[in-house]
Amino acid sequence: TDIRFQDDEHVMRIINRIVAPLGRHVDEASPMVDARLPDGSRVNVIIPPLSLIGPTISVRKFSRVPFAADDLMRMGSVSEKAVIFLEAAVKSGLNIIVAGGTSTGKTTFLNALSSFIPVDERIVTIEDAAELQLQQIHVIPLEARPPNIEGAGEVSIRELVINALRMRPDRIIVGECRGKETLDMLQAMNTGHQGCMTTIHSNGARDTLSRIETMVLMAGTDLPSRAIREQITSAFDLVVYLERLDDGSRKVTAISEIIGMEEGVVIMQDIFKTEMVEHELERPTYELLTTGIRPVTMRKMERANHFMPTDFFEASESSGLRMRTNAAVRSR
Q1: Are 46 and 52 in contact (CB under 8 A)?
Q2: Model pTM?
Q3: Residue 166 and residue 300: Cα distance in Å, rounded?
Q4: 179 within 8 A of 201, measured Cβ to Cβ
Q5: Can you state the angle between helices 181-189 and 205-218, rounded to 10 degrees?
Q6: Residues 18-72: pLDDT tens digits?
Q7: What phi, psi does 185 have (nearest 5°)?
Q8: CA-CA distance, 169 to 153, in Å (whole number)?
């Protein structure tokens, strides 16, 4: 567009028109606002003295119709075989972490995973700002509340997680664990709430577990590291890791399972891993392939009557293609 703001005062007038209907206020005393617009979009505002170039507005818009697993397969974000496995995992009540960096599509993928939850289950979703768009009948969305102008009235995600445990949920979905609420999420998963899901910022599948441990410590607990790792091992089953590649595409690059502890170290293994596939006449592509390892979590899935063919997890081989692992991808 060729439309431009006239000056900083013009931007501030627009900011006030955006945040006032939301019951929020921006000034030098409270120079940051993160809120949800009526259409579901996220708006973030930061003004001087924190912003050195003047008032800044960021708006994140979401698709009116959430992406389904079929859409993600069509866009090449995830393979069909991985979707079959994840659908069985969700229906079997496995606890899943969707991890990745900023803007890698974690919430979009969590939305797609949630579509596999049976329609007769009671689901409680907990978010800072409501982004999840679940299609089931019995969904109770809870949204955290920031403090008002006087600094009172705040309701944190941690308080909502504690309250959700009293609501007889079949599943709890936390939009993002980023602080003290991680401890309560762990406790929920370790007290019989199966099929819980959340997203976490991290630099890799293994790094995700380190971040969880750090965030548990942020809750002020005096638990030793070994006890926290035992809780993590008992609580979570799968880590789905997403990356935004150099070409701008968002892809699942690893699906790993947590299988136990050995000498104080959490043991993980990759079930699916992104490999570079070389084509004879075309550019190499990254594809999510099976590693040849049959997951330990299949025992839990089979108890829930979800079975996979014996050759489902065999290492992927494609006729006419020659595969080689890119060292940079492997190192991540």
Answers
A1: no
A2: 0.84
A3: 26
A4: no
A5: 110
A6: 999 988 889 888 899 988 888 878 899 999 999 999 999 999 887 777 788 899 9
A7: -65, -45
A8: 25
Cis ω before 21 (30° cut-off from 0):
no
pLDDT at 323 over 50: no
Q: How far apart are CA 106 and CA 91, in angstroms?
A: 19
Please state, as a whole number, how many other Cβ atoms lie within 10 Å of the Cβ of residue 244: 15
Tell me if residue 327 falls in helix, strand or coil: helix
Neighbours of 177 (CB within 10 A): 25
Residue of 56, 58, 12, 20 lying closest to 38 (CA atoms): 20
Distance CA 133, CA 40 (A): 10
Q: Say what the pLDDT of residue 330 is.
A: 34
Taking the C-alpha atoms of residue 46 and residue 256, their distance in angstroms, rounded to an integer, is: 38
The CA distance from 314 to 332, in Å, is 23
Residue count (the chain): 332
Q: Alpha helices of the chain — where are they, by DSSP H?
A: 8-19, 69-74, 80-91, 106-114, 157-164, 181-189, 205-218, 225-235, 298-303, 327-331
* Nearest CA-CA partner of 201 in 320, 101, 128: 101
